[in-house]
Amino acid sequence: MKFAVLLVVYTAIICTNVRDSVQQWDTTPHTYVTSRIVYGVNAVCDGAWTDWINLDGPGGAGDEEYLSEAAAQGLVCSSPTAIQAQTVNGIPAEQTGQFIFNHNPYIGFNCINNHQTQPPCLDYKVRYCC
């Protein structure tokens, strides 16, 4: 099973000693790295999941469930932090055996018919963490 991981890097100044109402600040930059799974059944959501969104079907080139289209319709926030995709029958995308071209919260999801050994793509729906 493959996982996409978002690495978040940030710098902080830390209060290292609080005693007798005197604060001493360590002004040395400290860098922290944290990671989280951003797609699939194990995706971490610190916010709330949207409703399931299904704007396209598997006809034509394949099933394209793009973030930009969902955002344009007001169905999702502009900067989601995670995505989940599953077939309209409830099978997680990573368990279908199909080649998934995109599956991330920055672009969305798409399955391309001519990339499948057994076309066509299934009909998928997505939801985003906002």
UniProtKB/TrEMBL annotation:
The keyword Glycoprotein applies. Residues 1-15 form the signal peptide. It is found in: Secreted. The keyword Transmembrane helix does not apply. This is Mucin-2-like. Keywords: Glycoprotein, Secreted, Signal. Its main location: secreted.
